[in-house]
Structure formats: C-alpha cells, structure tokens
Amino acid sequence: MGPLGRRSSNIVGSCFLPAKQHCSLAVFSRAPLSATTPTRGARPQSFRPTSGRRPASPRAEFCSKGAGGHSSAEVVSEQQVLKSKLWQHLPGALPGNLIGLLHLEGLCKCNSLYCINDSYWFGRDRNCEYCFDEPLLKSTDKYRTYSKKHFRIFREMGPKNSYIAYIEDHSGNGTFVNRELVGKGRRLPLSNNSEIALSVWSNKVFVFFDLTVDDQSVYPKELRDEYIMSKTLGSGACGEVKLAFERKTCKKVAIKIISKRKFAIGSEREADPALNVETEIEILKKLNHPCIIKIKDFFDAEDYYIVLELMEGGELFDRVAGRQRLKEATCKLYFYQMLLAVQYLHENGIIHRDLKPENVLLSSPKEDCLIKITDFGQSKILGETSLMRTLCGTPTYLAPEVLNSFGTAGYNRAVDCWSLGVILFICLSGYPPFSEHKTQVSLKDQITSGKYNFIPEVWAEVSEKALDLVKKLLIVDPKARFTTEEALRHPWLQDEDMKRKFNNLLSEEDKLMALPQVPAQPSTSRKRLREGEAENADPTKRLAVCAAVS
Length: 550
Hints:
Blueprint: E1 11-16, E2 24-29, H1 78-84, H2 95-103, E3 111-115, E4 119-123, E5 130-131, H3 135-138, E6 151-157, E7 163-169, E8 175-177, E9 180-181, E10 187-189, E11 194-198, E12 204-210, H4 221-224, E13 227-236, E14 239-246, E15 252-258, H5 260-263, H6 265-271, H7 277-285, E16 295-300, E17 304-309, E18 314-315, H8 316-323, H9 328-347, E19 360-362, E20 371-373, H10 378-382, H11 384-391, H12 400-405, H13 414-429, H14 443-449, H15 456-459, H16 464-473, H17 484-488, H18 496-514
Parallel strand pairs: 2-3, 4-5
Antiparallel strand pairs: 1-2, 1-12, 4-6, 6-7, 7-10, 8-9, 8-11, 11-12, 13-14, 14-15, 15-17, 16-17, 18-19, 19-20
Helix pairs in contact: 9-13, 9-18, 13-16
C-alpha cells in the first residue's frame, strides 16, 4: 500500500525529504494522473498545491512559485495540510494512510507533488524540476556541496511493459544510494526504501518509495547483498519470477523463487537422500549453450532462489497469443533453436519434462531473435512427486507415456520430443492439438490415443514438410517418435538462410556479451567537502561499479 491508500497502476514511486516535522513528497507516475476523475476517497475537483495556483505545466510543478510566495516544493506544516484538506485530493487517500506511511520516517503530514514526466532533475539550478533552493535544504551546512544539477531520477520501460525507476549521478561530489557511490554519469535502479545521500554517504536527504514492489527486507540477506530485487515478472505453479539487478554491474537478471513449503521439498529430501538440491544446481550451472537459460547463482534459504539470465522478449506463449499464429519462417527459426537446446540437455543426461511455450523465452521483442529454454532440471529441484503433481495440473504438453505412468520410471527423453511437437503445432496453427473444447473426449484420452484436432483450412497455409515434422513428433509410441537428432535432419529444417540468420543472431549476442563492464570512478572534485568527510569515512569502503544499463 502506498500513501494514496491503495496501490495505483500508474504510480512508480515517491521521494521523501526527511525532516523532524515536515517533508516534501514527490510521487512518480507512469502516466498523467487525472485530476478530475473521482476515485475512492477523492473529491471530483482539480488538485491544487497549497501554495496557490496550479503550475503552468507538470514540468514546472516542482519549483514554480505560487500566489502565496512559496515554492510548490516547499514544506508546509501539518496544520496547513489539515486546513487545506490536501489528502482529499489524492486518489484513494485517507489521513490515516498518510500518517502510517510517514511514521516509518518519524515524520508528520506532507505536501504532495505529482510528477508525471519520464525524467526529473534535482539540484541547485532553478531550472531543475526539484530545485534545492528552499529553506529546508539551504539551511544545512551541506548545501554548498550540492551541484547545480546533482542527480536525475527517471523511468524506463522494462520487462512485461512495466517501468523501472533509476537514479543517475551528475554531481561533482557524489550521489549515494544506500551508502554506495553511484558514480558520475552512472545509473542505479532504485528499489523500495532506497536512501539517497548527497555529497557524503552520511548526508541522507531523500528516501525513495517504490509503490509497486514489496519491501526488500522480506528477502534473505545473502541475496540482498548481491542483488536488488524489483518487480514481479511472472508466476506459475513452480514459483514466482522477479526482476532483479546485480549490485556490482547493474545487469538485469531474473530470480525464480520456489517455495519449499508448497512442494514439501524438505520431506522429499529426507525420503530420498540422493535429492541434493545444491549438488543438482551446481550441475545445472555448468550447462553452457546459447539456447539455454544460464543459471548464474543459487541461494538456499527459507525458499529457493535461482538467479537466471533475463530475456527481454518475454515468453513464446505471449508472442503466439498476441499474433494468433507465427509465420512459418519464424516458427522454423525458433524451433531449430529449441531442438538444439533440447538435444544439448539430452546429451548431458537431462530430461526437461515441462517443455511448453511458457518455458521458451525470447531475447528480444523483434520477430527474428534468439530463444532460450528455461525451467529445465526441475525434477532434481522439486523432486519427482512434486514435479509430476505440478505438471499433471495442465497436461496439454505431456506425452502419452507420462500420463500413463504418473511419475513412475516408465518414460525417457522421448517425452520432450512429444512436447516439442505440441509446441510446433501451436506455433504453426495458432491453436492447441489437444483440447476439451467442443468435445466429449477427455484430454487424457485425446493425448494417449494421439488424436489431435486437425483443421484443414488452417493447415492449408502450412507447408507439407512442416506438417510432416509435426506428425513425426506426435507419434504415441515413444520408440517410433522422432528424436531431436532425427528432427534436426528433417527436410523442413535444411534451410541455409534460416541457419545463417541464426548464426548472425549468435554473433550479435556474442558482441554484446563481450562489452567490458567499466567500473564507476570516484569524483575528483572534492573541493567543497568539509574536512573529515572524505570518501574513506564510509564504513562500507565499497565503490559501486555500476555500468550504464542499455
């Protein structure tokens, strides 16, 4: 919950200026907030700062002068807030909610200033959206160490069409986030409750509240020491996936959280001593293939935290759903990579067992892009019984022998080839081969008999070679079913243009991976620092090495 009483989809975050009795609040919005739309707890009238008239533009709202001679960014007393009933103009806000939020900092009421642009400058320059030329900041002995343009807070679009807030240092004497120097010209993602200090690490001036994410403290310390947790990217039967940032490099990663209690993992480990999760993770971390998601790190705490490389293009499921069906050339490019990935897993003794479009990730929103397989090896993490219980909840992609055996040792790597056939069927046609829609035949009976739903008018647009490969993969008898090697030799995939495109995409990725990470350098301009406040006064003695995030 944020200061507005309920979480708004528009709000990115807010900054508080700490003081003993007062504060200024800057609310960062995803889009212009409607000042006239009635919402719960709000009056249907325009919001006006307590200083008087509404600023001429949202950009000027931080530091424009009101009729009363005060800056709209200037702090106001609790009595002024109550008198103006400012809280009634905040969407869904209640006085109690404001007090509750400010109580975390030991503060009272605050004046709310909406920020509806993508970027905001903070500094002594009057052209900054948040000008430091106000009594609360000018009265401090650090004011003369602040730069005209000290730092910038801005937002960028991240995965799942959600915004990420960043801070960018432009100062001579430094901007610190949670005691770590950002570095001039560098940026850092802002997480909930990030403390922003100016010139020296101990001079905390702002606290950033991200109103869209949970508190960082809910995650284990060893994880927080290495990563900054951010927004939820997705969730499924096997866990939740969060966006995160590596502290040393600012590189985006995905962290999958698997609940031990949900899967009773502890009891299975006791029943099967061979189920050593840490050992299995170490094996999976050694896998190295361009079409397989790389496991970067692993934390065993109250839950399991698996750190994975992030794919900006999202899931294949969303790509197919958004376009109904994919072009055959695109299907071929993607499927060729899937086969290479699964072949590599099989060569390393790993059966995926949960191949589906949700577990095929895309590197880019562009149509021609690399794909990567994720969520492999989960039987080694969750245990056989837990995995089968999860998979059989949505059996659309399961092979006949899996449904018949229900977790017993009655199947092999051929199950993945069946799942690949189902995925190829969906990509080419835009609909699933097995469904209980408009039929009395159960899904299990359809799958175990191999009777897929064939719509001639849809498949008329698909080549005979592509359809033939689908049929070879959807053979009920696992011994007669195509292997990955046989599929890769199929005539449909003997396409030199497609393979050349794939190799070019690999080359582009290799170039990006080879870009050096440049560590942030400490500022050489220390002339305004007070004696005894040198950089080595920071007890952390750590320099943030956050390269710019592209």
